[in-house]
From TrEMBL:
Pfam families according to UniProt: Cu-oxidase, Cu-oxidase_2, Cu-oxidase_3
Domain Plastocyanin-like per the UniProt entry, residue ranges: 43-78, 79-229, 391-415
Subcellular location as annotated: Secreted, Extracellular space, Apoplast
Lineage: Eukaryota, Viridiplantae, Streptophyta, Embryophyta, Tracheophyta
GO cellular component: apoplast
Natural source organism: Salix viminalis
Protein name: laccase
Alphabetized Gene3D superfamilies for the sequence: Cupredoxins - blue copper proteins (2.60.40.420)
């Protein structure tokens, strides 16, 4: 099976939703090797009564399930996540291109999705509802990924509690919460403990945005349904035939910064006095980075839709990053950085201001492909501690619109003295242009 490169990264918001039960079955089972063939193709998909051509797996959206029992051997290793996404009736590439041309904010999505389904709260979407079936008295591991382009999301399941155990591939001190907050591109692993007995009810799982800015956003709610399976012994019981009540969770207000601050403050590493998280006490380089939204001047003979006729821009240290036409790593490796990038990214904001007070009056930002160049094994004080990986590394905002507006920069880590500290050459089949 080869590797397919998808035609557009914005299509990657399609959703795969699964869960892993933590209960172990000790009965012996015959282990087998399972073979799966996954074909990535473009196919028409309909949501919200709109049909569009998009990437599917084996002709399905979301893709097919991959099933394995304990002891089985898979030729493909998968971690199967829960992913939130967005559905655009329009072409997402056209949406962002229009925003970049006009200098205004991008048009918002038409729906959020869970597992590729908008759910029953949207028009023309009742049949496109994801249903998660669980058994009473079990503990499930849910892996959540926020693949929405521009929105942090609140997420909750009615009358159930999550135990957060991991965030962004790092274990955290477990804590309980009825509502999660997850940012674009963020991953979170949580434990969901089901009711000890069939509750004779169904439960909505909903997500909607957390927003504090002044820009436009998709002010809607996506919903799925948590259902309890009925055992074979009670298949004819009353709760399998009657219409069960449907409970709805209470999500925080859209601008509930108090909840957001309280939730993120609980994300703590497993470090303790016995196993401390040792960080370097001496640093070689110190950086102060400020990030934010600003503006560019509108080009001549063009009407722009940003503030006061300008174009929206985003920056780090007042520099809005301009994407080069030549790959940065390629230019660095071959020593051909001239005309591609300059090694003069500012170590602190070009225009100092009160960083904890009112923002500066001048919102105009500069534009350029500026990088920070570091000797091998430099210890840097900027959240990250230590830079011992060679090459060129992007640092950017996970909100797609901010990245498109230039809220990104890059680090160049130079070769070390030892042979093992040299950047490997590019592959032999690297395109020449």
């Amino acid at each position: 099976m080869g590797i397919s490169f998808l035609p557009s990264p914005t299509f990657l918001g399609f959703l795969l939703f699964s869960f892993v039960t933590l209960s172990l079955h000790l009965e012996p089972a015959l282990a087998i090797t399972r073979h799966y063939k996954l074909d990535v193709m473009l196919q028409n998909v309909t949501r919200l009564c709109h049909t569009k051509n998009m990437v599917t797996v084996n002709g399905k959206f979301p893709g097919p399930r991959i099933v394995a029992r304990e002891g089985d051997r898979l030729l493909i290793q998968v971690e199967v996540p829960i992913i939130f996404g967005e559905w655009f009736n329009a072409d997402p590439e056209a949406v962002i291109n229009q925003a970049l041309q006009t200098g205004g904010g991008p048009n918002v999505s038409d729906a959020y999705t869970i597992n590729g389904f908008p759910g029953p709260l949207y028009n023309c979407s009742a049949k496109d509802t994801f249903k998660l079936k669980v058994k009473p008295g079990k503990t499930y591991l849910l892996r959540l990924i926020n693949a929405a382009l521009n929105d942090e999301l609140f997420f909750s399941i009615a009358n159930h509690t999550f135990t957060v155990v991991e965030a962004d591939a790092v274990y955290v001190k477990p804590f309980d919460t009825k509502t999660l907050l997850i940012a674009p591109g963020q991953t979170t692993n949580v434990l969901l403990k089901t009711k000890p007995h069939h509750p004779n009810a169904k439960f909505l799982m909903t997500a909607r945005p957390y927003v504090t800015g002044q820009g436009t956003f998709d002010n809607s709610t996506v919903a799925g349904i948590l259902e309890y399976e009925v055992s074979h012994n009670t298949i004819q019981s009353s709760h399998s035939t009657k219409k069960l009540p449907l409970f709805k969770p209470n999500l925080p207000p859209l601008n509930d910064s108090s909840f957001a601050t309280n939730f993120t403050s609980k994300l703590r590493s497993l470090a303790n006095a016995q196993f401390p998280a040792n960080v370097p006490q001496k640093v070689d380089r110190q950086f102060i980075f400020t990030v934010g939204l600003g503006t560019h001047s509108c080009p001549q003979n063009q009407t722009c839709q940003g503030p006061n006729g300008t174009m929206f821009a985003a920056s780090v240290n007042n520099v809005s990053f301009a994407m080069p036409t030549t790959a940065l790593l390629q230019a660095h490796h071959f020593g051909q950085s001239k005309g591609v990038y300059t090694p003069d990214f500012p170590i602190s904001p070009l225009i100092p201001f009160n960083y904890t007070g009112n923002p500066p009056n001048n919102t105009m930002v500069s534009n350029g492909t500026k990088l920070v160049v570091l000797p091998f094994n430099t210890i840097v004080e900027l959240i990250m501690q230590d830079t011992s990986i060679l090459g060129v590394w992007f640092m950017h905002c996970h909100l797609e619109v901010h990245t498109s507006w230039g809220l990104k920069m890059a680090w160049v880590v130079l070769d070390g003295k030892l042979p093992s500290q040299k950047l490997l050459p590019p592959p032999a089949d690297l395109p020449k242009c």
